[in-house]
Structure formats: C-alpha cells, structure tokens
Specification:
The structure is a homodimer of 486-residue chains. Chain A has 486 residues and is an alpha+beta fold. Helix content of chain A is 35%, strand content 19%. Chains A, B: Keywords: FAD, Flavoprotein.
Chain lengths: 486, 486
C-alpha cells in the first residue's frame, strides 16, 4: 500500500546465502521442497495486509520434526536466519522474511493429526495442521475444539500457538495458550523440546511451555501440540441484538453471564456503521431487524443439555434485557443456518471495510468495564484529528478486546489518510495505556509493533525478554528482529 | 517423623547471619516485625508433614511491597538467602528455611484486598490474603473465586500462585495459573515487576507472568495478583455415587461431562477403604448409602440458571449411569448442608489417614483415560512389595490427578514401613513415567522432589530452567536449593 507510515524498522540486510549453503539446506528436505524460484516463493513472501514486502533466499518445506531439527542445527552452525511460517495469515509481520539472507521454514507439510483421546479429551497434532482441520477432527470425535478465527480455513495451529491467537471463543474457552496442554518444539541448536504432555496438572518446574507459546517463533519452532477438547454443546442459539450504546451492551453482557454462565460462548459487538459496510459489500447479508440501532451485539448461548435449553436461556436473558430497557430489539436465529449467517456478518467486518478505502487498524484491549469510556475518548480524539473519519470499532466485548479500525472519510485521499497511521496509533494507544490496556490484544508484536513494545514496556521486562531470548537463541537465528531485538 | 527415608538433600549450611546484618534487615520492617526468638520462629519453621525441620536466622514480616523490595535489595547485595513464605501449608518443603543463615520472608502482613471489579470480574489482592478471604470477597460481590483446597482457611494466595495450586475446582475452572490475569512481584535485586494487568487478552511479548507463577519463590516474590472471578452458580447439586471400579467412574465422568458441560464442577473419587477411614475417624461422617461399594465418586453439578436446573442435570446423568449399569447406587444431597457434608468427607481423606499409622504419599497425574490402568498396575506393584499395604488412592479423577497414598499394614511397625518411602516412590513414579504422567501434579517440587526432578527431567529442560534461574537470580538468594540447583 502506498503512503502508509507505520515506521517499519529498517534493519540491515543479512548477508545473502551462498550457493553452497543453499545446497546444504536443500539436501535436508530434498530439492522438491527447497524452493528458490521467485514464482514459488511469492506465496510465502506476501502477507494479508501488504505491509511487509517479503524477501528471502529460499523456502524449506520439511516433512518431519527431524528435518526441522537438522535445518535448525545447520542454521545455528552457519548463523543463518530462519523465519518460521505456518499459514501465513499473521497480521503483524511475524511470519514475513525480511532479507535475501533469510530462509522461510514452512511448517505446512507437518500436517498429521497424530492422535485423538476422547476420554482425556485431547488431540495431538502437527504444527502445520490447518485450524479448521483440527476443529473437524474434534467434531468427528464428538467433541469441540473452540479456537475460532476469521482465517481458520488457512491458518495453521502452530502459528496460532506461536502467536497465542485469540478469536471469538476466548470468552468461554480461553486463548490458544489456555487450550494447549503440551508442546513439541525445536530449539535454535536443533535440540527437540519433548513436551507433548497430555496432563491437566503437572507442576514439575518452570513453565517453559507457556514461554514458547506466544513467542512468535523467536524462542523455538513449534512442531506439535496437545490441545484440549471440550464436550460438544447439544444446543446453540444465536441472537442479533440492537441497542443504544456500548454501556447497554456491557449491561447485557452481565445479564447474559448470569443466565448462561460458562454457556455464554459468544458476545461480539459492532456499530451501525459496521453493519452498513457489511450490508453494502457482503453478498447475502441482510439486516436482521426492521429498524436501525446505534450498536449491535451478537450473542451466542450453548447448552450441554439440549437445543431447548439453549433457547430458553437465550429468551430469558433477552427478556431481562428488554425489561430493563437495555435491549431495543433482538432477532433470535430461526435456524442453525441463520445463526451461521449472523456469525458470518460479524466475521466479514474486516473484509467489508476494504471497499470503503483505507483503514487505520488497532487491536487493543482494556479492562472490560472501561470499553465504553475507551470508545468515547478515542472517538473524540480521532474525529478531532481527522474530521469525517469513520470509526468502525468492533470485536470481543466480553474480553475487552476492540478492533478499533478507522475507515477514511468519504471521498478522502487514501494515501493521505494512511500516511497518518502512526499519528493515529499514537492517539489511540496513548488512551489505551492510560487505561492499563494493551496495544496488542491478540495479534502479537511481530515486526509491526516491535518498536512500540521496546518504547513502552518497562525496562525490567524488556531486559528479562532479551535475556530469555539469549538463552534460547544465542546466535539470534530464530525469527531475528521480531518481537524483541538482541 | 522417625525413619522416613525420603533422601532429603543435605545442602551445606549458609554462613550464619551477623548481628550487624540482622539489624540492617530488622530496620527495614521495624523490630516488632523482625522475629529472632525461638518461640516466635517456631510457627515458621514447622511445616504440615513434619518432613523438613526448619532452621533460620530470623523472620521478616514486611507490610508493603516497598519493604519487600528493600529486603531483597539488601539480600542481593549481601548474598543473604531468602525463603518466601505464605500460609506455610506447602507439602514439598518449598516454604521451609534450611539453615541458620537463611531469612524467612513472610508475606502474611501484605493482606489487603486491593480492588474488586464486578464488571470485568476480577479481584486484585495482596499476596498474603488467605485463600478463604479471597473466596469470601468474591462471594460478597456476587461472584465466585473457584480455587478450593483443603488448606483454604490458612494458605495464602501468593503461595497458591507460587506453587500453581490445583485443588477440586480445576476440573471446571483450571489451575491457579489459569485463574491469574496479572502478577506483581519483587525480583532478586529488589526491582518490582509491575504486572497487575486486568486483561483477558494481552499479547505483548513473552509470558513472564506464567514463569513467575509456579516458580515456588525461586524467580521472584509474588506480592500481589489480579485473579479471575466467575458468575456464581444459581444452583448446585452434590451426589455421592457408589460404583464397581475406576473404569465405571471414568465412564460416568464422560456421561457427566456430556450432560453438564462446563457445569460439571466436581468429580472426585475415593475407594471404600478411604470411606472406611473417614467413617472411623471423622466426627459426624455417615455412609450415604446402605450398602458398601468398591469405589465412590463425588459429583457436583452447578447451574447458572437455577437449583432445579442443576437438580435435573444431576438426575439425568445419574439416570443414564444407572441404565448403563455404571452406577450401583447414588445419594443426591437433600440440602446444601448435606452437600457440604459430602464434600467434607472427601476433604477429610488426608486427615482420616493419620490415625491409621504411617502413610507413604504421592501426588501423581496420568492422562485421564489411563487412571484405571495406573491404579491396577500400581496396586499390584505396591502390594507385592509390601503385603498388607492399604492403598488409599483418591483425588481428582477428571484431572487424572491421584493422591496415591499408602497406609501401613495393620499392626506393622510405622518406622519400618516409612523407611521404604523412597523405594515405593520409585515403584509408583516409575509407572507414572511409563504412562507419560507427572510425579508432581499439584504440590510442586520444593525440596522433596528436587533430586527426582533433576534425575528425570530431560537435560535440555533442566538446562533451560537453570539458565532462567540465573537470569532472574544471579546471586542465588531466592529460595536457594528449591526446585532447581544452580
């Protein structure tokens, strides 16, 4: 994209790889899986936002953990930078190679579902299994794997864990980290961390698993994982609710929690502007209600007992919301298909923004109770800075996680608007910091937010992070320049 | 206790503290909170199992985080070993001072509940708040803090987090680690780690919080925490179920999960022998059923909707269990008081074993599906080694966590029986290892299991643990000799 000023770090290039070294790496995986042609590389170099033009010497596609180990051993020995990559869906450039001296290590061919344990409710998978396949394998075993993201059809579970992905299931089931019981990873020197434990309780020493999870490939390359599965709900109800304000949405959240308990499996919010975008640009989208409302909430209730039970719970919580004057209008999905259609509208939000021109994006979280205050203050600051800016703030209200996206004013110059990305980030993230929030709720740091992390995280924590990085990767070959610089 | 051969490490004594240094430490907290008299020290030196006779130069009782910081700064400067201590209820000696050169740092006077956020459902507490007070404060706010342990009336939340305590609530709500959103801790040099975040999603760099949680005071001293609260169930039903075997219990677990989903808030098992001990030694305990059964399960179902809903779910799952021939008999508690009485029987198991003589104890976990196999193999091995040994294996079936306790044969010599502690540990832990289990499910490593950890954990992980310990505590002043030696 032209004109985006996101102040991407311009790290010096690594030395290009020699032909001889390329050949040694290629020999590990076989030439068919060592890609060097520009046409073959393209898919690994481009990323969803177009912010990080990728450059790399080659792409390696190992099939086994042992091949990954051999690659990292050679890389460590020769100080060759390795960029691990799963489905290449990350939004902060963590998976993007940055120089002709770097090698992309694709995990996509590690794609076996190793085992399903229906009694212990676990699934053991290779890192390269696409998230949707994990969901399907769980479903076939009569169970649920609740991690759910817009990119689930192409993102891979290793990348989900490496970035501690969030999504819409966090409300009831937790982040990727909480869904993971065990990890297998290859460390920088090629050593294999054998941590594929299926235990719900294991207090044998420091929690190295959770250090690897969320480290974005900078401490080790996740090659396999044991994931938690859950009983599949017997019933599921989805409602689209119109209300006057974020405050009303928050009140409804508390009511819904009281009624549904752990069965509240979705609570997403979006503004009217977001619904307008969806209705305008997403095929088949229909306004579920006759009248417009300033805000909408998508509520999902699951029941372990029955569809009727889910229905009753949904009706009871909406009735209380109506009586309290919180809910202006509500449409309960009449069928599973309509429920999916409601979800599809929410999940199409990012896509629906694209035809509206440039969008300055944020992935922030604040304490749940402060979401309305954040929206009000951020709205005032942004529209003061850019009159006419169209704020499309949506996301996971129950997690305090707002995708605070700002579409350009109608008719404005896209490049000119996007050139203010950094300035607007500063405004929004400043407010988030004042509210003890996070400028990266679920997307991670990657390259995009590395400088901001270094600037804003307490010096003590940056020191600990750098020290930990040095323990795991003394030669700085694992995804160098991402998350933290040493 | 006489005769116990648990091969406690005999580390060399630290140099005794000079008078001058004692005075400098005392000046930080004031002489009233710097205990040096034997009578004052006693309560800090003795621990529940009587395995770790404590020795210490003094006990410091700071009131503020700043005082903790000043203590650690001075300790680091003077290389004085510090043993952090909460409610002194730990079972592996992690909180026990080991030489006249060590200082006990009691967190008990850091006892403020700092804040409750009913909308974001969090509570922020000092480390020294007794667990039961956290539960009560949550209850007063109409919410639930689900961490629940036998020692909840005296253990402190800082210690719970430092040891990643488990307990009976793990099934539905997770270990202490999963219940914790943010941590405040003082590191070895006195620096304060300001991590009291109230965010459900925060992906800003490596997960240092979870490294501190479960590090048993060896990486930092936890001084405060933000904990997750949950909606308080509207209804709760407890049943005591008699059945033929652990296999039957496991089948009932799956049925119960299917019916209750996240509302299955308790699933504990015990053998007839355990119930016999309870009936014999615990005042007021009554057999809930007319006939004896080989095994029992305590099932708890919670409902967010109503007492009737919980009742219906319980009845439905038991009915299915009866029809399938899994449940032999069941008693649903007729009142909350009776439900509490059922729980009390389960929670009295450890106490009820005491009058039966010596007990060789284990805190193990295996994959849930393998619990019956473990019980069978371990039973055969133990009774072959010690004919007449009375195996009282009970615990958290849904977590695969078995407290595999063995009471001495009737009439046997206690000292002679206990002298085989180490040998029997070897048998049981050997089986656990074969089943990819853990020899410390929820009690931690402390001193008791340090050597076994060093012997059995992969060298790579021990190397990482030692390297991490050195980063956080270069002078080895924080609980030295616990968990891992450097």
């Amino acid at each position: 994209m032209t004109g985006i000023d996101i102040a991407l770090p311009t790290d010096p290039d690594d030395a290009p790889l020699s032909e001889a070294l390329r050949a040694r790496f290629a020999a590990i995986v076989g030439t068919a899986n060592a890609l060097t042609e520009a046409a073959d590389l393209a898919a690994y170099l481009e990323e969803p936002r177009g912010l990080f033009p990728g450059r790399a010497a080659m792409v390696l596609r190992p099939k086994t953990v042992e091949e990954v180990s051999a690659i990292l051993r050679l890389a460590d020995e020769t100080k060759t930078p390795i960029v691990p990559q799963g489905g290449n869906t990350g939004l902060t450039g963590g998976q993007s190679p940055r120089s002709p001296g770097q090698i992309v290590l694709s995990l996509s061919r590690l794609d076996r579902i190793r085992a399903v344990d229906p009694v212990g409710r676990t699934i053991t998978v290779d890192a390269g299994v696409v998230l949707q396949r994990v969901q399907e394998a769980a479903d076939e075993a009569g169970l649920l794997f609740p991690l759910s993201l817009g990119s689930e059809g192409s993102c891979e579970i290793g990348g989900n864990l490496a970035s501690n992905a969030g999504g819409t299931g966090v409300l009831a089931y937790g982040n990727s980290r909480e869904l993971c019981l065990g990890i297998e990873a290859v460390l920088a020197g090629g050593e294999i961390f054998h941590g594929l434990r299926r235990l719900k309780k294991d207090n044998r020493g420091y929690d190295i698993r959770d250090l690897l999870v969320g480290s974005e490939g900078t401490l080790g390359v996740i090659t396999g994982a044991v994931l938690r599965l859950f009983p599949k709900p017997a019933g599921r109800e989805v409602a689209f609710v119109g209300l006057a304000s974020p405050e009303a949405a928050l009140k409804l959240l508390r009511i819904a929690e009281r009624h549904a308990g752990g069965g509240l499996t979705g609570f997403e919010f979006l503004p009217r502007l977001g619904l307008d975008f969806v209705l305008r640009h997403i095929e088949g989208a229909r306004d579920p209600m006759a009248q417009a409302h300033p805000w909408y909430v998508l509520v999902e209730v699951s029941s372990s007992r029955s569809a009727e039970d889910a229905r009753e719970t949904m009706e009871a919580l909406l009735a209380e919301g109506f009586e309290a004057g919180i809910v202006a209008d509500a449409a309960i999905a009449a069928s599973l298909a309509q429920g999916d259609a409601f979800w599809h509208m929410r999940e199409s939000m990012s896509w629906a923004q694209k035809p509206e021109g440039g969008s300055i994006k944020h992935d922030v979280s604040v304490p749940v109770a402060r979401v309305p205050e954040f929206l009000e203050k951020a709205g005032a600051a942004v529209t003061a800075a850019i009159p006419g800016a169209r704020i499309c703030a949506f996301g996971h209200l129950g997690d305090g996680n707002v995708h605070y996206n700002i579409s350009q004013p109608v008719g404005a110059d896209t490049a000119g608007f996007l050139s203010r990305w950094r300035e607007i980030n500063g405004l929004v993230h400043g407010l988030v910091a004042e509210m003890d929030g996070s400028f990266s709720a679920e997307h991670g740091i990657g390259l995009l937010k590395r400088e901001e992390l270094a600037r804003t995280k307490p010096a003590l924590e940056m020191h600990l992070m750098r020290s930990i990085k040095r323990i795991f990767d003394r030669n700085n070959i694992l995804n160098p320049g991402k998350v933290v610089q040493i």
